[in-house]
């Protein structure tokens, strides 16, 4: 960091996660790309491979015949190129109309589209492909981590009306594609992605169905350290808190919703869902919900996670 020109030391295109030795002479390099399983190598500081410590074994996955994503970009109306990826069914027919499931996270500088191996998420996504769905991800500009300037657009108004403009542009682009059934587009996300699912379903009419897992529904209910980092104190930013509250917009829900939460969630407290549900009840809006007793934010134990994925699959097949 002497102010000189940066020099690339990795050779393969994809994602390299590195860890340097204490003396700075060597580093471990964990590498993968969207079609290649991870490999672990010991490297010199100049990028010379000294030893391949763990190599990928694609034969272990060959019998599963997993489809892997294609990377591309989606243009917004003002010319920004959003990073995107698409998973298509194995025997994809370009002239056929497919239902689409849009998977989002959307947090500030928290991209979901990478040129790296997708890991275990590919298994559930491929289940969806085998049922005839297309699965898409794209990152709105403030989620891309391209620059601090793009992230700072969200100061005082996080997970609200700013990001939804890019999301709608992306969905409109998808609906214009000849292989997309524009009347059968769904959305789902977890945590921040759950929030964006509610944002998209209460502030637009673009989605036929959606699944929101562990969503923040109003920043008043979230951890003050994180919420006030971007939103400031409620008394200093009442307009921002008002415009990013999906409790306020719940009565405008469009499309069928499955709302999921763990009752022991100590990250996004279940009161977020309680208040949103209360507004749906007041508005006499039908919806589905699934609460997992004694599960935290990740709903991560095998029985609960398998149950959740089965529940999600049943929901998509009934409502999308």
Question: Based on CA inertia axes, which overall geometry fits?
Answer: globular
* Helix content percent band: 25-40%
CATH architecture of the largest domain: 3-Layer(aba) Sandwich
In CATH, the topology of the largest domain is named Rossmann fold
The Rg value, from CA coordinates, equals 21 Å
Percent range for β-strand residues: 25-35%
Question: What's the helix count?
Answer: 10
CATH H level, superfamily name of the largest domain: Alpha/Beta hydrolase fold, catalytic domain
Low-confidence stretches: none
Number of strands: 12
Specify the CATH class of the largest domain: Alpha Beta
First-to-last CA distance: 52 Å
The structural domain count equals: 2
Lateral arrangement of strands in the main beta sheet: 5-6-8-7-9-10-11-12
Q: How do the helices and strands follow one another from N- to C-terminus?
A: EEEEHEEEHEHHEHEHHHEHEH
Oligomer: single chain
Structural class by SSE content: alpha/beta
Task: Estimate the mean pLDDT confidence.
Answer: 95
Please give the largest β-sheet. 8 strands, mixed
Name some characteristics of this structure.
4-stranded antiparallel β-sheet; Serine_Prot_S9B/DPPIV; dipeptidyl-peptidase activity; 29% helix; 8-stranded mixed β-sheet; AB_hydrolase_fold; 2 domains; alpha/beta; 320 residues; Peptidase S9 prolyl oligopeptidase catalytic domain-containing protein; globular
């Amino acid at each position: 960091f002497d102010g000189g020109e940066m020099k690339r030391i990795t050779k393969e295109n994809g994602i390299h996660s590195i860890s340097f030795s204490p003396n700075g002479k060597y580093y471990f390099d964990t590498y993968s790309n969207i079609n290649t399983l991870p490999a672990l190598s010991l490297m010199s500081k100049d990028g010379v491979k000294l030893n391949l410590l763990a190599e990928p074994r694609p034969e272990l996955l060959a019998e599963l015949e997993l489809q892997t994503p294609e990377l591309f970009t989606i243009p917004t109306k003002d010319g920004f190129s959003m990073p995107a990826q698409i998973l298509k069914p194995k025997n994809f027919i370009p002239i056929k109309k497919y239902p689409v499931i849009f998977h989002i996270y959307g947090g500030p500088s928290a991209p979901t589209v990478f040129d790296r191996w997708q890991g275990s998420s590919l298994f559930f996504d491929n289940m969806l492909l085998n049922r005839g769905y297309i699965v898409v991800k794209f990152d709105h500009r403030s989620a891309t981590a391209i620059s601090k300037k793009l992230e700072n657009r969200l100061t005082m108004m996080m997970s609200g009306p700013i990001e939804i403009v890019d999301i709608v542009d992306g969905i409109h682009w998808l609906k214009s594609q000849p292989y997309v059934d524009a009347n059968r587009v769904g959305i789902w996300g977890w945590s921040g992605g759950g929030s964006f699912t509610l944002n998209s379903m209460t502030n637009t009419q673009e989605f036929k169905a959606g699944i929101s897992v562990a969503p923040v529904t109003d920043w008043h209910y979230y951890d003050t350290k994180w919420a006030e980092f971007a939103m400031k104190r409620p008394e200093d930013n009442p307009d921002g808190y008002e415009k990013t509250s999906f409790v306020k917009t719940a009565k405008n829900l469009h499309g069928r919703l499955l709302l999921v939460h763990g009752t022991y969630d100590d990250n996004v407290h279940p009161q977020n869902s309680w208040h949103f549900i209360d507004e749906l009840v007041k508005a006499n809006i039908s919806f589905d919900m699934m609460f997992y007793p004694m599960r935290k934010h990740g709903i991560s134990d095998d029985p609960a996670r398998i149950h959740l994925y089965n529940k999600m699959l049943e929901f998509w097949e009934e409502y999308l």
